[in-house]
Design brief:
This protein is 42% helix and 15% strand. By secondary structure, the protein is α/β, with parallel strands linked by helices. The chain has a single domain, classed as Rossmann fold (3-Layer(aba) Sandwich), CATH 3.40.50. Strands 1, 2, 3, 4, 5 and 6 form a 6-stranded parallel beta sheet that branches. Helix 1 runs parallel beside helix 5. The longest helix has 22 residues. The protein binds flavin mononucleotide (FMN). The site of flavin mononucleotide has 15 residues, from helix 1. This is NAD(P)H-dependent oxidoreductase. InterPro entries: Flavoprotein-like_sf (IPR029039), FMN_Rdtase-like_dom (IPR005025), NAD(P)H-dep_reductase (IPR050712).
Length: 185
């Protein structure tokens, strides 16, 4: 069984990026489970505080431990995120900042899934961040399904189309292949 942790960089209830990740979970081939991580928004029990190295003690804040444990338990990570003002959304950057020094992302296979064909600055910035923390980007598994500006109903209809389901399933299969290949190294 391959376990994938899916992280959406959008906190919107009607987020197209989160919808994309839920669709990936639903499209997962046999032997692959996709769990969508919720806890980026800094609100409520179990949510990440703003990154502060002073607070990264032993033990770390519970939500930070939860994020790190979830990453350790995952064979791979999928990230879908919007672009805000040509950058990576703060909530996602905050989560990644919590795992720089603790190293859970080192050698972790990561695929980017895009719900917008724009977002080129965010893609580039995210690629740079993931590279510098030594994650392993799986280019074959990076897909774009344009959902930007769609209502939740239209986004759901697009994601339910056979070609979307196939694209998501192929991406997850590409992740599985990359994970298996690295395990055999
Ligand atoms: C404040 C704000 C700034 C944005 N800046 C950009 C931008 O710089 N480039 C871009 O391509 N889209 C930008 N967008 C559009 C979002 O990236 C887009 O709506 C995205 O699909 C939303 O994702 P979500 O549905 O998962 O929340 C911006 C949206 C907001 C609300």
């Amino acid at each position: 069984m391959m376990r994938v942790l899916a992280i959406s960089g959008s906190l919107r209830a009607a987020s197209t990026n989160s919808a994309l990740l839920r669709a990936a979970a639903a499209a997962a081939p046999d032997g692959v489970t996709v769990t969508v991580f919720t806890g980026l928004d800094g609100r409520g029990v179990g949510s990440l505080p703003l990154f502060n190295p002073d607070e990264d003690g032993d033990p770390p804040p519970p939500a930070v431990k939860d994020l790190r444990d979830s990453l350790v338990a995952a064979d791979a990570v999928v990230i879908a995120c919007p672009e805000y003002a040509h950058g990576v959304p703060g909530a996602l950057k905050n989560a990644l900042d919590w795992v720089v020094a603790s190293s859970e992302m080192v050698d972790k296979p990561v695929a980017l899934m895009h719900a917008s064909p724009r977002s080129t600055y965010a893609r580039e910035a995210l690629t740079e961040i993931l590279t510098v923390i030594s994650a392993r980007l799986i280019d074959d598994a990076s897909i774009t399904i344009p959902l930007m500006g769609k209502t939740p109903e239209d986004a759901a209809a697009t994601l339910a189309r056979a070609e979307s389901v196939a694209a998501l399933r192929n991406a997850l299969t590409a992740i599985e292949t990359a994970v298996t290949a690295s395990a055999a190294r």
